[in-house]
Amino acid sequence: MRTLARPPFVLRAVAGLLLAVACGCSSAGSGDKAGPPRSIAVSLIGYGPAPFELVSASRTSPVELYSEERPSASTKVQVDEVMEALIEHLDELGFDGYARPGTAPQDGGQAFAKAIQVEEEGRQAWWPLQPTAGKAELKSFNTAVRDFLQLYNQTQGWQSVDNTLGGEYFDRQKKGKGGD
């Protein structure tokens, strides 16, 4: 007997968003169970110079975020329903069981190299990938990272970045890659 695989997280998140929009249009104010939008931020730490971060639109206005000049473009704003689906997905992968309360230390040192951090309605927790992680935790963590990055890469962001080098920045990039 053949069983169907569960659809990838990103497809479920998009389907959930479409369903939420459809239900919201047809039955606004008819006793929704979802409740008010939640302030959510999910960060992937240790995969670059700055954490990759997705935040809910209820937490950060996209207009405000993208119009202010920042040193990095690593934060992106996603709609509330998709961020809520991401939190559900992390819970399915065991986030609460592996996570520690609070925020990840700025320098993980030898304790951990990578982590997933969640801030939701004042609650903060982080899931470090430790060298002692077992197979199940490693598989869950890697799935969470993969799915977060898929969603992050599909989320548009138009960040204004502080670049004092101007066009020279791109010239330097070319030289570094071209070996000139």
Model description:
With 180 residues, the chain is α+β, with helices and mostly antiparallel strands. It has a domain at 36-157. The protein has six helices and six strands, in the order αββαβααβββαα. Strands 3-2-1-5-6-4 form a six-stranded mixed β-sheet. Strand 5 and strand 6 form a beta hairpin. Helix 1 crosses helix 3. The longest helix has 20 residues, at 135-154. The protein is globular, with a radius of gyration of 19 Å. Mean pLDDT is 79; it is low at 18-32.
- The largest sheet has its strands arranged as 3-2-1-5-6-4
Low-pLDDT stretches = 18-32
Mean pLDDT: 79
Beta content: 15-25%
- What is the overall silhouette? globular
Quaternary structure of the protein: single chain
Counting DSSP E segments of at least 2 residues, the number of strands comes to: 6
Structural class assignment? alpha+beta
Number of helices: 6
Major sheet attributes: 6 strands, mixed
**From the alpha-carbon coordinates, what is the Rg to the nearest angstrom?**
19 Å
Summarize the structure.
The chain has helices spanning 9-26, 62-67, 80-92, 95-98, 135-154, 168-178, and strands spanning 40-45, 52-56, 75-78, 100-101, 114-120, 123-129.
List its salient traits.
180 residues; alpha+beta; 6-stranded mixed β-sheet; 6 strands; 40% helix; 17% strand; globular
